[in-house]
Amino acid sequence: MKTKLLFMLLLFLCVSTAWGQSKSISGKVTSTTDNEPVIGASVVVKGTTNGTITDFDGNFTLSADANSTLVISFVGYVTQEIALSGNTSVNVLLKEDTQMLDDVVVIGYGTQKKADLSSSIAVLDTKELSKVPGGLSAGLQSSVAGVQVTNGRVRIRGVGSINNTDPLYVVDGMIGGVVPDESNIASIQVLKDAASCAIYGARGANGVIMITTKRGTSGDVKVDYDGYVGWKGLSHDVEMLNGQELAELINEEMYNADPNRTDYLTALSDPAAIGEGYNMMDILKRTAFYQKHNLAVSGGSDKANFRINTTYSTDQPVFIREDYKNYGIQFISDFTKGKLKLGETVTINRNLHDWSDCKILGAQKWSSTLPIYDDSHPTGFAGAGNGTDCGNPVAESYMNWNKGEGTTINGNIWATYEIIPGLKYKFNMGVDMYRYMVQNYIADYSIGYENHTPDEYKMSSTKTNRFLYENTLSYDKTFGKHSINALIGVTSEETKGLGHNGGARAMPSPDILILGSTQDDASKVVGSSVSRSSMFSLLGRVNYSYDSKYMLTFNFRRDGSSNFSKNNRYGNFPSFSAAWRISQEKFMKNLTWISDLKLRGSWGMLGNSNISPYQYQSTVNFAQMWYYLNDSKVTGALPTTPANPDVKWETQYSTDLGLDLSVLDSRLLFTVDYYYKKTKDMLIQVPISFSAGYMGNFPTLNAGSIENKGWEFALTYRDHIGDFDYSVTGNLSTVKNKVLDLGTNNAIFAANSVTKTAVGKSIGQFWGYVTDGLYRTQAQLDEDKKFAPNAQLGDVRFKDLDKDGELTDEDKDYIGNPIPDFTYGLSLDARYKTGFGDVDFSMIWQGSQGNDIFNYSRVDNEGMHHYYNNTKEVLNRYRAEDLTFVNPISGVTTFYPKNTDTDIPRAVIGDPNQNRKLSDRYVEDGSYLRLKALTLGYTFPKVFLSRFGIEHLRLYVGAKNLLTITSYKGYDPEVGDQDRYSGKNLTRGVDGMSLWDPTFPNTREFYMGLQLTF
Q1: Burial (0-12, 13-18, 19+ Cβ within 10 Å), 140
Q2: Which pLDDT score is estimated for 689?
Q3: How many angstroms separate the first and last alpha carbons of the chain?
Q4: What pLDDT band is residue 10 in, cutting at 50, 70 and 90?
Q5: N or C terminus: which one in the chain shows less Cβ crowding within 10 Å?
Q6: 15 and 43 in contact (C-beta within 8 Å)?
Q7: Residue 461 has pLDDT above 90, yes or no
C-alpha cells in the first residue's frame, strides 16, 4: 500500500513539473531595417530540435519551458538568442547582417574566415548578378579589380602565356563545373594570386573562379521564380554609302585611274537616278528578342534539404537566321546523419543552336547599286554585278543551314565524416559528360559569281566523359589564441573523347539527308577521332592563425599529366602567404575610426599544361592518305607532328603584396594589390625546316618567358540616410605585359599578318607599315619616287624606315598594342524604403584606357580600289583640285569639290600605290567608357503580399550598353580575339578580319523582369 501511494505521489509531482515547464510561447519577428515581418525565420529552443518558423505576419507559436532560451535566425540577419525568463510572449527585432556573407569565403577545398585570409581573393557580391542579363560576366568585368572581360573571354591579371589563359571554374567543389544560372548562385570568389590558386596546381595558373550554388534550407517548401524578357540591337552602326554615293565614288575611281577612259559602267552613269539604292545590312539586321525563366523549389529540415532549379531560355542574335534555346535542370540536396553528411549537385543542360553562315562583312561589300532579290531567278535572289564579284550574303544565309545539339551532364556527389572532433574525411566524385552533334547543309545553287553544285551535307558528333575522384582529410582545431587548419588529399581525373564525322555531296533531296543515299559515292568522306588524357595529384595545405592577428598559409600540389612523357610528367607547385592584422594590435586600439587594417603578401608557383596531347610522341594522320602500288590503291599514313620527349610543364612564379583597410565602422573599404607574375618554360611551337616533312606542324618546346605586373585598387563606400541606403564601388587595374624570351624564335607572327609577338614587347602587338599622312606636294612625290613610283597627290605616304629606297617588310614596325594601360569600373546602388514598398536603382559603368584596335574591316571598307561598297568615311576623301566630271555614256555631270584637309586618301581603281597596305592608318584608339547597365526596380511591401501568400515580389526594368563614349569607328570597342575558340592570345584587338568575324559586337538591350517567392 505504501508503495502504491509513493508511486502516485511521484507521478503527480512529475506531471505537475512537466505542466509547469511546458508552456505556449508566442511572438513576432520583424526586421529593424524596414519594420516588416520576417517571414520564414527559424525559431528553435536552444539545445533542442524543438522549433518552428514564422508565418506570413512574422508570428510564431511553440511549446517550451518558460525559462528556456530561443534562437532566432534568418538568412541575411544576425542570429539572436532570447532568454524567456518566464515570459510567454516576445517580440524579436532582427538586424540585417551586412558582414555575414563576407565573413566566410570559399577557398580551394574548404572555407576560411575573410579576416584570416592572407592571399588575394576578391568576393563578387551576388547582388551584381541581378542587375543585368548576363550578370556574371558584367559583374566580373565591372566590379572585380584585375579581371578583364572582352567578347566573352575572361582574363585575370593579364596574359601569362601565348597558350590558353582562361581561368578555372570550380562549382560546388567540382573542377570544371557548369556555371549555374545567375539566379541560383549563392557566392562567387575570384582567386587571383598563387597562394590562393596553388591548391589547384596546373589548372590554377590563370586564376580560379569559385562558385557556390544556392541550396535548400530548413522550413516549408519555397518556390522562387526569376525571369526576364528583353530586346536588343546593335549599339552602334557602321554607315555604308547609298547607291548614288557609291556610283559617284566608282566613277571618280575610274576617272583617277585614267581621265581619258570611256568604259564607264552604264548602270552607274546617272548616280542621282539610283538614289538610295539597296542596303543589305538592313536586311540582315533585326531587333532580336531573348528571354530567360528560372523556377526553383526548395525546402527541408536541419537534417535533410533539397533545391531543384529549372531554366528555360531563348536568344536571338541581332543578325537573321540564328537562334539559341537552352533547357536546364539542377538537383541539389544535403543530408545529415550523425557525423555523416552527404550532398550532391547535378546539372543537366540541353542546348540547341540553329545558324547560317551570315557573312556580315561580306554584306558591307555588296554594291548598294544592286538589288538583293530577283524574282526571275529560281532561288529568288540576285547575283553580283556592276563590277563586283562577291556572293550575296542574304542568299547564302538562306541557302545553307547548320544545326547543333548539345547535352551536358555535370555535377558531383560528396560525403564527409567527422572521425573525431575537428578531423574530417571527405570523398568527392565529379562527372562531366558532354554530347554534341552538328549538321551542316549547303544547297545546290548558282547565283551570279557564286556557284555551289552539287549540294553538300556533313554531320559530326563528339562525346567526352570526364570523371574526377578526390579524397581529402582535414583537421580544424582552435586552442587558446591559436587556430590551425590542415588539409591533405589525393585526386585523380580522366577524360576520354570520341568523335565521328561524315559527309557527302549530291544528295537526292534537301529533305533526304542520308549519307548512304548520295548520288556520288566518290564524294563520301568519313573520319573519326579518339582522345584520352588524365591527371593525378597530391595536395596539402596548412593555415595557421594566432589571435586572428598573424596568419600563415602553406599550399602544395604535385600534378602528374598525361600530356608529358614519364621524364617530365610531374610538376610541383608550392605557395606561401602571410598576413598581419595591424588593427588587432594594442597600439591601434585608440584609432577607433579604423575598423580593420591588414597587410598581406604571398609567393607561389603555378603550372600550365594546356597544349595538345601527345606532343612528346610523333603523331600520324591516316585521313585521305593513299598511294598506288602496282596500279592498286593502298592506304598510307603521313607523320603530322614531330616528337619532343623533353617537353615539360610551363611554370609561373607569382608574387603579391596587398593591403586591406576598413574605416568608419566598415562604411569605407579599400583594397590595394601589387602583383608580379613571371612565366618560364613557356610552351611554344618552334619552326623547323619543311624538308622534315611534317605538313607545317612544328614541335612544341619549352622556349619562352613572359612577365606581367600591375596594380589593383578597389574602393567601396556604403551608408544610409534614414530610409535611403546607398553604396558606391569603384575599381581600377593596371597590367604591363612583356615577353622576356622566345628561345630560338626571334618572333611569332600570327596568321592574320597583323600581330607579332617578340622579345621586349607585349604579346600580340600590331605590326605593319608606318605612314606619314598623305602626299600633299610634288616635292614629297619627287622625294619618294624611288620606292613609291605610282604615287600621286592624295595617296598614302609610307615611311622607308631602313632608308634603302625600297618599301619592303624590313620597313614594318610596331604600330599598336591591344593591351590597355588600365581598366576600371564603377557601380552605384541605392534603395529607398517607403510605406508602399522599396524602390531600388543600380548603375554600372565600365571602361578601358590606352588599348589599340586594328580595324581590319577598313582595309576594304575604306579601300576605294574596286567596285565594292565603302563606309561613309570616304565621303571625306582627298581631291587635289575641283573636278567637273561629264559621264561619256549618259552625259550626266557630277561636280567633285576640292578637298585637301583630310586624312582619307584619294579614290583610284586598282590602288596603284597600294594604299591598302596593312599600316598604322587602320590602328585606332580602343579606349572607351560604357554605361554597362541601368536598372530600376520596385519591391512590394511584405504586409501587402502576405494577404496573397507571397513572400517577395520585385519588378524591374533596365537597359544594357545604353551609352558608350569612344572614338572607335567600328561596331564596338570591346574587341576580343580572332582565335578565341582555341584560347590562344596572339590575335587580340583585331576587328573585322573575316567575313563572319568572331569579334562579335556588344548589343544595346532593354529588358524587364520579375522576381517572385512564395
Answers
A1: buried
A2: 56
A3: 62
A4: very low
A5: N
A6: no
A7: yes
